[in-house]
Q: What sequence folds into this?
């Protein structure tokens, strides 16, 4: 156990020595470089004849096209106003987007109302056709149940039978037309972008 403790302590000591030595080694070359740079700066200041580098001035003729310009400093006041204008524009854009969404919802509601109205027409035509068919079946059952009545009133029955069949055919056509109109309205609503959940 003591052996493991000594090995651990030796490792910690070696690591501590390395950490302390590394910053000292890094600073040994630094003063010589600082000295040479300081001498150079003093020499430049004392000798007025050395040419000073001219600052680079950019205009439209020599503005770099491929390279980026970096401007350091505060934003100009005009730009701050531009930011406020941009924020107002964004707010106006969001208002117009809300208005556009409200108009779209209103248009969708209009399509939904049309579809619902046409569905009601289809349901009504379907019920009317069903009533006519039941009446016809009841009359036919009553007529065929009484053979004497059928023989006495065959001409009258044939006329009424033809009338009922014509009414049933007309009502079936009205129902088919209403269903076709409903299908057309739903297709137009799909083309207008109305969600299926609102028109199915």
A:
């Amino acid at each position: 156990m003591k052996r493991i403790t000594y090995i651990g302590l030796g490792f910690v000591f070696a690591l501590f020595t390395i950490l302390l030595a590394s910053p000292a080694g890094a600073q040994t070359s630094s003063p010589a470089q600082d000295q040479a740079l300081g001498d150079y700066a003093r020499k430049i200041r004392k000798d007025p004849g050395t040419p000073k580098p001219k600052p680079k001035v950019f205009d439209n003729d020599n503005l770099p096209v491929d390279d980026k310009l970096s401007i350091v400093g505060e934003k100009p006041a005009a730009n701050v106003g531009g930011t406020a204008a941009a924020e107002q524009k964004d707010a106006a854009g969001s208002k117009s987007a809300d208005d556009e969404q409200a108009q779209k919802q209103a248009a969708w509601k209009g399509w939904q109302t049309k579809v619902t109205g046409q569905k009601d027409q289809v349901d009504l035509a379907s019920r009317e056709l069903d009533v006519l068919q039941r009446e016809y079946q009841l009359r036919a059952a009553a007529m065929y149940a009484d053979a004497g009545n059928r023989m006495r009133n065959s001409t009258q029955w044939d006329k009424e039978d033809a009338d009922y069949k014509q009414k049933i055919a007309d009502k079936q056509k009205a129902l088919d037309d209403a269903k076709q109109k409903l299908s057309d309205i739903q297709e137009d609503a799909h083309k207008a972008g109305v969600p299926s959940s609102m028109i199915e």
Observations:
- The two ends are 82 Å apart (CA to CA).
- Residues 110-199 form one domain.
- The chain is about 80% helix and 0% strand.
